[in-house]
Every structure is written in structure tokens, then in C-alpha cells.
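Sequence only, no structure available. Ideas?
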Amino acid sequence: MSFNQIFKDKIINLTPLKIINCHAGKLPFYRGRNVLNWVLINDEKEFGITVHYVDEGIDTGDIILQEIYPITDEDNYKTLLEKAYINCASLLYKAVKLIQKNELNVIKQSSIHPIGTYFGVRKDGDEIINWNMTSRDIFNFVRAICEPGPKATSYINGNIIKINKVKLVDKAIKYKCIPGQVIGKAENSFYVKTGDTMLEIIEYDYNSKIKIGDRLG
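Reply:
I predicted one. C-alpha cells follow.
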């Protein structure tokens, strides 16, 4: 007997009213791991929280309740995490009350989309910045793994730099140059060329002086 069959027969069916789970993802999309990081990396304008039944699949059970929350450019991993902590508890409570009252209107995930999307766990090394990406993509990448995440990482002359926040430069012009090169400095920040325009690096940890012409990579 396979593990899935054992799980289905011996665990899922132990409880007469089934098992429910609260997932910080807009099922059937964003199944899997590190969902709050991935929604920001993908430049989504909203994220979902779903209470669903547990089946033998990965986040594939019927949907009990789902709520959608907007994402703005002011959001980052920390703000989404805070929203998820609060609203997961609230939505789970609502679901339990519906079950108690027998007022459920469950939705099969396949009725929304036949496949959905899955996301894998992020590992060491996934935090390294690719400066060939567009400014928008790097902006999303940095805010997706900012504190309390591992923070985006790059290197200057072999020395590590941890970047917690960057800013899109208003009216920045697209042009070709060296992606990752430091092209300007301000009092408490500096500017780096990206694959299309430039970014202002405004929160970072680095143990040495940064000079114009340095290359991050």
C-alpha cells in the first residue's frame, strides 16, 4: 500500500468531519511552499488566503472559504506575513463556525482551473540577485525576501552585501551598460545599473566603502 493510500485511509478518515487547513495562497494557484515570497516575485497585485479540506494531494482539497487581499508597491514580505497571521486566524474561525452550522458551500478547485500552479521551497542560494533582470523584477525580488527573510544578496570584490530595500527610480531611462555596476551615490544610498534602467539601494549591510564603478555580482 502506498503512503498516499495509507494517508487517505488511516489519517484523513480518522476524523468524521474531515481535516481542514488554512493556506496563505489563492488556491488552486500558489499551492506549495513560500507562497508569500513567490507572489511578490511574480509582481502579483493580490494574494489569497484559503481554508480548504485536506486530501491526499498538496493543497488540492475542496475550498471552504477564500478571501483576497490587495498588494501595493508599499508591501513586502513582512507586511504580507503580518496580514496572513491575522487573517488566517479570522478566516479559519469563520470556516469552523460554518461547519458547526452545516452551512458550507464548498468549491472544487478543478472547477476554477484544471491544473493550478505549484511553488517549491526556496533554498540557500536562491537569494542571490541577478542584475541582468529588469529594475521592476529586482525590486520585487528584494522586497519578497526582505526581513524577516534572508535578504537579497550580492557580492562586491568577493565581499557579501545584504540588501533589504531598493527603490525604483522615477523616470529612469532604459539604456545598455554593465548590469550590477555602481553608477552613482547619494548621502545614504547608491545607484546600480540593472538590465534595463537603474535602482536606488537604500537599505543594505556592507562592511566596506562602496565606490562608483564597483560591480555587484
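The chain has a mean pLDDT of 94.
Hope that gets you unstuck.
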